[in-house]
Amino acid sequence: MLPQATIKSPSNSNAPREWQLEDLIDFDFALESASKSGKISDHQHREAFLQFQKENDRNGTKSNSTERSKAFRYWLDKQRQRPPLADALPGQLFCRGIRTLRTLIYLAALLSGTLMTAALLRYDGTQPTNVAGFLSLLLGGQLVLLAATGAGFLLRRFGIIRWESGIIAPGIHFCLNRCVKWIQQNVQEKSSAESRLRMQAFLGSVTRKHSHYQAIILGILSTLLQSFGIWFNVAAVATTLFLVTVSDRAFGWQSSLNLSSQEIHHVTQRIASPWSFILPSIAPTITEIEGSRIFLKDGIKTLANQNLVSWWPFLACSLLVYGFAPRFLLWLGSHWFVRNRLNQIRFDSLTCDRLWESMNKQELRTSGSALGKPENPPPPLEMVALQEAPPMSEEKKEEPYALVIVEPELAKRSSQNKIDTAIHELIGWTVSRWIKLPDETQSSAVFWEQVEPIRNEASFERIVLIQEAFQPPIRETIAWIKELRATQAPNGKMMIYLVGRPKEAGRRQEVCETNHQVWTQSVDALHDNNLAVSLLEIIDDNE
């Protein structure tokens, strides 16, 4: 059983903190759970936001509601104390698996570096270590990987290859699936079956639905790969220094080609050029190179000992400069890349918009007896709406206009003003235009003719589709939704609101839970983070 996670109460400090990967995973999981359970508009979100502002005022921090990051971080700390995050933190478990993998990589790098170097430096008194073979085996593979890494970066940078077309994306999905199974084994005793299945579904689609994870996980994998190279070279250098200190080792060079000592000296000088300005003596001289050349028919009896041991400083520096240093620089770059990607997340997805609107939505709640004359005076009204509202942000200055798409019959029976008001209250969008879907006598071309002139309008970035829930999301409907999403900008958003069947004049039935689940599962299968399904209660106009 996993130990209970220790979480500081957010009421102790409201200082801004940087987002970590485990925070981002927990946030997306809590947000997705709230969305699927229908609690995205729960009043607790508003209460958490008001507490966040009060603590800002108490600590003397300037309240700025435009920074979603700080408010969402405070909200996350609150959610970690409630189910489903209170049962098990997926971000913490995921990062714990990464730390376990990192430890295994460190051990494997140290072990492989030590054993390979020791094997190459094995000396029985008759056959010295071949300098060319030593460098080729310890540095050749690393240089090839560095060249492949640089080529892959340039090819992706200029769009020649894409994320999905390589072997990296399938490899990451495989690692995530293995991580999901590991998480299931660790949380099965402390969380419900529903929480485990929800966590499995979330982590299984995390890189497909949440695109920012692709680059972050790629950066983490790059960091782990560079960590292996760093500790491999550390082990190789340490083993080399240890063996030449405690035992007698010999180094030499040989070649079947007609290479002269001058040519070998020229190559070694080129290799030693990075450190020759600081340590010019750490490179074999022409005399030492001539004195360490091995001829199989003569052996090493005619070679001087000082020439045979002159190579080890050159080999150690080569490992540090061409093995350790590039890996360390790439590790720093990968670490910066992950940190930069985390700081660039804007929290502007559709679900984040819904949460932000719920946090900023002002409510009026009353408490008291509804019927009969009370014996004592009723308690005063709890005027949540009269609390000081947050300052208007730059984001709010630009009105988020939206486009509503609705079937002709539904548009005929419903009140447009009431629907527009309901949409604004739910998600904060201001409806500026309605488009009716073609009826049975019209072709789909009629709809696209209406869409084409408004594709560049601001309202087209936010589309609301009002759909009667009893009509299932058949293949043609899903294909039409995908086609409509393809016409929007990359950051465009689409909200599908389900309504019930007409029941009687002015009223509609509640949406069946089964219909709601069918629509939610069909939309989730598209792995679109800016496409969501929710319920909408509307009252038809009396006929």
Helices and strands in order:
Elements: H1 21-36, H2 43-58, H3 68-79, H4 90-120, E1 129-130, H5 131-157, H6 168-187, H7 193-204, H8 206-209, H9 212-246, E2 251-252, H10 261-271, H11 273-276, H12 286-291, H13 305-308, H14 312-344, H15 350-360, H16 394-397, E3 401-406, H17 408-413, H18 416-427, E4 430-436, H19 444-451, E5 462-468, H20 475-487, E6 493-499, E7 502-504, E8 507-508, H21 513-524, E9 531-535
Parallel strand pairs: 1-2, 3-4, 3-5, 5-6, 6-9
Antiparallel strand pairs: 7-8
Share of β-strand residues: 5-15%
The 3D shape can be described as elongated
Structural class: alpha/beta
Largest sheet: 5 strands, parallel
By DSSP (H or I, 4+ residues per run), the number of helices equals: 21
Helix content percent band: 40-55%
How many strands in all?
9
End-to-end separation in angstroms reads 61 Å
**Poorly predicted tracts of residues:** 1-15, 364-375, 377-397
- Rg on CA atoms, Å: 33 Å
- Average residue pLDDT: 78
Q: What is the chain-wise order of helices and strands?
A: HHHHEHHHHHEHHHHHHHEHHEHEHEEEHE
Arrangement of strands in the largest sheet: 4-3-5-6-9
Describe the protein.
Strand 7 and strand 8 (507-508) form a beta hairpin. The chain has helices at residues 21-36, 43-58, 68-79, 90-120, 131-157, 168-187, 193-204, 206-209, 212-246, 261-271, 273-276, 286-291, 305-308, 312-344, 350-360, 394-397, 408-413, 416-427, 444-451, 475-487, 513-524, and strands at 129-130, 251-252, 401-406, 430-436, 462-468, 493-499, 502-504, 507-508, 531-535. 27% of the residues are buried. Helix 4 (90-120) crosses helix 6. Among the domains are: 121-343, no CATH class; 399-535, Rossmann fold (3-Layer(aba) Sandwich), CATH 3.40.50.10140. With 543 residues, the protein is α/β, with parallel strands linked by helices. The chain contains 21 helices and 9 strands. The strands form 3 sheets. It has a 5-stranded parallel β-sheet with strand order 4-3-5-6-9, sandwiched between helices. Strands 1-2 form a two-stranded parallel ribbon. The chain has a two-stranded antiparallel sheet with strand order 7-8.
